[in-house]
Amino acid sequence: MGIRIWHQSFTVLSDLGAYDRALQEHFRNIARPDTEVVMHGMHPGTYRTNYPGDDIKHAALQHLHSLQFIAAALRADQEGFDAYALSTLPEPALREIRSLVDIPVVGYGESAMLTACQLGHSFGVLVFIEELAELVTENAARHGLATRFAGARHVGFRFTDVLKAFADPQPLIEQFLVAAKALIADGAEVIIPGEAPLNVLLAREGVTEVDGAAIVDSLGAWVKHAEAMVDSRRAGGAGRSLRGYFSSQPERARVDEVLAFYGVSQRLSGKTL
């Protein structure tokens, strides 16, 4: 029996042809033959340009944009997807989404960090949206991994540089390796290459280690975690906890009412959920 995963990006994928195509190819290479990763991005017009970082670097705007992730997760659950994946380093509303749906939910950053802990004692993260370093540090602590976290650094280039590098990757890879070595000097034994566009570029070019430190394929990590969670559930394993403030599930009818009150269901999912 196959697996269908709803992939949710923080970018408008239709604005990013080279990245969109690279993602599709990477998922074909990583996922099992019977796993279908169905790609979704933000709605066209979400951002002023094809660069989401001008919004994502602000906590308030990121929180507002997370409504699209919530609406998409509810739709994925309703449409019978087997798992939902927040395929973005900031993981907007990850905890809240898990409390709203019954299907397994995986987060890009969380999966990368958990995988990193299996590959070495300590890990660090390189980001091209500099302001995300603070959020990544907080997320590592929220995931219970603060003692394994060696820090987050700016990688030395930006989103637009990564997009250009899909045509000529080597100069950017050299810059990445310099930044990775600085993070190793800070104590990192494993490197997480931050945001998904950089991740998929490095994976496509076969960059898997630097000076003996492993480089995590964060996209591959969440695909495999999602597959494993679906397999476990189908084999009779436990579902998620429903205990406590952060995990208790509200009545679905009330969720629909609240979404409709704020105009979220119609505007962001294309139909009433």
Put the structure in a nutshell.
Helix content is 48%, strand content 14%. The chain has twelve helices and nine strands. InterPro entries: Asp/Glu/hydantoin_racemase, Hydantoin_racemase-like, Iso_Racemase_Enz_sf.
Number of strands: 9
Distance between the termini: 27 Å
Q: Helical element count?
A: 12
Order of adjacent strands in the largest pleated sheet: 6-5-7-9-8
**Alpha-carbon Rg, integer:** 18 Å
**Helicity level, as a percent range?**
40-55%
CATH structural architecture = 3-Layer(aba) Sandwich
Descriptive notes:
The protein is of the alpha/beta class and 273 residues long. It has one domain (3-229): Rossmann fold, CATH 3.40.50.12500. Helix content is 48%, strand content 14%. It is built from twelve helices and nine strands. Strands 6-5-7-9-8 form a five-stranded mixed β-sheet, sandwiched between helices. The chain has a four-stranded parallel β-sheet with strand order 2-1-3-4, with helices on both faces. It is globular and about 50 Å long.
List the helices and strands and how they pair.
Layout: E1 3-8, H1 17-30, E2 35-40, H2 53-56, H3 59-78, E3 83-86, H4 94-98, E4 105-107, H5 108-119, E5 123-127, H6 132-142, E6 149-154, H7 159-165, H8 170-185, E7 190-192, H9 196-204, E8 209-210, E9 213-215, H10 218-234, H11 252-261, H12 264-269
Parallel strand pairs: 1-2, 1-3, 3-4, 5-6, 5-7, 7-9
Antiparallel strand pairs: 8-9
Helix pairs in contact: 1-9, 5-10
GO molecular function: amino-acid racemase activity
Protein name: Racemase
InterPro entries: Asp/Glu/hydantoin_racemase, Hydantoin_racemase-like, Iso_Racemase_Enz_sf
